[in-house]
Amino acid sequence: MENIIKDIDIISPDEAQACDFKTTEEENTGKSKKLYIESYGCQMNFSDSEIVASIMKENGFDTTSDFEQADVIFLNTCSIREKAEQTVRNRLNQFNTVKKNKPELTIGVLGCMAERLKEKLLEEEKIVDVVVGPDAYRDLPNLVASAEEGNKGVNTFLSREETYADISPVRLNSNGVTAFISIMRGCDNMCSFCVVPFTRGRERSRDPYSIVNEAKELFEKGYKEVTLLGQNVDSYKWSPEENNKARLNKKEDEVSTLVNFAKLLEMVALVDPALRIRFSTSHPKDITDEVLYTMKKYDNICKYIHLPVQSGNSRVLELMNRTYDRDWYLDRVRAIREILGEECGISSDMIAGFCTETEEEHQDTLTLMDIVKYDFSYMFYYSERPGTLAAKKYTDDIPLEVKKRRLAEIIEKQNSLSLERNKLDIGKIQEILIEGTSKRSEAQLKGRNSANKVVIIDNDGQLKKGDYVQVKIYDCSPATLFGEVVS
Ligand code: SAH
Ligand code: SF4
Ligand code: F3S
Questions:
Q1: Where in the cell is it found (predicted)?
Q2: pTM of the model as a whole
Q3: CATH topology assigned to domain 178-423
């Protein structure tokens, strides 16, 4: 019982706004220099850091987990909310003393903040030597070499083509079981609150064969799960014309029809039945029944959909330029339940206190949550981002304390829904993929079921990460299931 109580994660509004970061791990292949990367923001950024590490590795750098050992420090940054940017600025201040003791150290800001602020970052943050946006990572070795000679540099060129398809990512922070694969870059959606279209540029899809090959290589190395990443995976699109352009050595039997997301999912699912497939993020306006039927057809496509709603009120959704309304969203949820059943996990992102949101409209978010019964949500209060449509057109008029109170209500609602949903799993037998030992105790193992829920089991000494195992769920908290092995 004790560990169950410890596992209850009540997220406070401030924690929900907090920005986690991941660092590189030690890798020593005898290269002359050391690179330390700290990654903030979304999975896309973590995935990009693996591309950056690969590019730098080709140019004489091993990774390190200790920034004091590093010749180059990169912060791969996020601009999604003001707080995310503030966290990076504070971190840069902390690196001031490191640089004082080691003037030859090169410090780079990469990612979305680099793209948003460009040259301004060099003016505002004196310790920064290079500023490089998400489409310019191939230029990093040149920019770092110039910085080592005392010339600061900026490259924030946004491309219509770059997908880094040919770069084999160095797997950072890897448990050796699960990995990310970027299938597209950028976003064409222009949600009014969102900075991503400005920091990541136009949407483009990656060659499906390079995606399938990456999945195959991962499986051959022992990985058991891949997550296909894009800001809006449902608009993935690869046409035969592009295929012809990009692949001069195309074989006759290769794609002659358009590859949409459903088709891509199928291609990756066919790599091996023992390779699990996940994906993120689905957009309510674009998710098709064809995708849902493909998920149903293949056991190895996990039954879990991250389907951010943002708000439960149609007027607010219109202001947000999400291009769907409450009814459309609920119809998509109905289709998920009809095709994939009650057990399919559904999660969401919510924004509390968007411009002009009334108390009644906020209540609509809470009632929608009750109808959908989300398993999990990422919850935020609105943070105005310079340059976005909302910043230009609307006034950020909801007082901070009101935003925080509404967010707290959303979080409280989600906690009780998560518990309610998890309780439905008690008594069921589910397959989990073991990812490693539990954070809390070596005597326990942590895995995930198809619906993306963390399941804790006892470590019997026989099971190891990468194993699939059948477990019977006997207890739960809002954040975790507890199971015992039945096979
Ligand atoms: N492409 C994804 C979202 C990526 S950003 C989608 O469309 O669902 C991740 C989440 O951050 C968003 O879903 C939204 O909930 C939140 N977010 C984005 N901009 C924000 C802002 N200005 N203030 C608060 N939260 C924001
Ligand atoms: Fe931002 Fe909307 Fe694109 Fe998501 S779909 S990244 S919220 S603009
Ligand atoms: Fe942040 Fe950029 Fe991702 S703004 S959420 S790191 S796409």
A1: Cytoplasm
A2: 0.93
A3: pyruvate-formate lyase- activating enzyme (3.80.30)
Sort residue 231 into left (φ over 0), alpha (ψ -120 to 50) or beta: alpha
pLDDT band at 311 (very low <50, low <70, confident <90, very high): very high
Residue with more model confidence, 439 or 155: 155
Q: How far is the CA of 30 from the centre of ligand 2 (A)?
A: 41
Q: Is 195 in the pocket of ligand 2 (CB under 6 A)?
A: no
Taking the CA of residue 383 as reference, the ligand 1 atom at the shortest distance is: 23
**From the CB of residue 45, how many other CB atoms can be counted at a distance below 10 Å?**
21
Domain with CATH 3.40.50.12160 in the chain: 13-155
Q: Give the CATH architecture of domain 13-155.
A: 3-Layer(aba) Sandwich (3.40)
- The three-state secondary structure class of 484 is strand
Q: Whose atoms come closest to the Cα of 79: which ligand?
A: 3
Residue ranges, comma separated, of all CATH 2.40.50.140 domains in the chain are 429-485
Interatomic CA distance for residues 394 and 416, integer angstroms: 33
Name which of 73, 96, 98, 78 is nearest 88 in CA terms.
78
**Which numeric CATH code is attached to 429-485?**
2.40.50.140
What integer is the mean pLDDT of 10-36? Answer: 65
Q: What pLDDT, in 10s, does the model give residues 43-99?
A: 999 999 999 999 999 999 999 999 999 999 999 999 999 999 999 999 999 998 899
Binding site members for [4Fe-4S] cluster:
42, 78, 112, 187, 191, 194
